[in-house]
Write a structure and sequence with these properties.
Layout: H1 3-47, H2 52-60, H3 65-80, H4 88-101, H5 107-118, H6 122-137, H7 141-160, H8 173-185
């Protein structure tokens, strides 16, 4: 083999190695992109959130669909259990709100049912409170404000579900106190 042929073969090997590395990098990037798109799609399906930027921000934080669903429904359950028990009308109200955010047979739905029966622990509520600010500050301000407003509307709906006496005092003090804690956690 001549020096020219040997040189040509080495160049071809180098070229093949370069393109092989480039192909591997492109394949890896495509797989990561598909993984992000799948995660965003699952977050959309599980949470009901439609805003792409919000979903990508949540995914970027490593928030899974299951974690987001639990994050969304815990305040509802906390309000329902604020007085130490969740009455049937509050349970119904929580389920009505949750069906907008949870897939019917998801792990989050099973978790919701357990929380409705047993109530959330103070540790769970405290953990939610400490995480709320970080989660909501990680997404765009418009989306964050919209989600906060929606959450407050939902917890108020749960609080009003038991109705009080003839529609008066529809929200108990314990429920109002719990809603105030939720608002503080959200920076409202």
């Amino acid at each position: 083999m001549s020096d020219a042929e040997a040189f040509h073969n080495r160049c071809r090997s180098l070229e093949n190695a370069f393109f092989s590395d480039l192909d591997q990098k492109l394949i890896r990037e495509l797989q990561e992109k598909l993984t992000v798109e799948e995660a965003v799609s699952k977050l959309r399906a599980e949470s009901g959130i439609q805003d792409e930027a919000t979903l990508k921000a949540l995914q970027g934080l490593g928030i899974t669909p299951e974690a987001l669903s639990a994050f969304r429904i815990l305040p509802l359950v906390a309000v329902a259990w604020a007085d130490g028990q969740a009455d049937p009308m509050e349970v119904t109200a929580v389920r009505m709100v949750a069906q907008k955010h949870l897939a019917a047979d998801s792990e989050a739905s099973k978790l919701l049912e357990r929380w409705l029966k047993e109530g959330p622990t103070q540790e769970m509520i405290s953990t939610w409170e400490s995480c709320a600010g970080a989660v909501f500050s990680s997404i765009g301000s418009k989306q964050s404000q919209d989600l906060k407003a929606q959450l407050i509307e939902e917890v108020n709906d749960v609080a009003k579900a038991s109705g009080g006496v003839f529609g008066f005092a529809a929200t108990a003090k314990s429920e109002s106190d719990t809603i105030a804690r939720i608002k503080r956690s959200l920076g409202l």
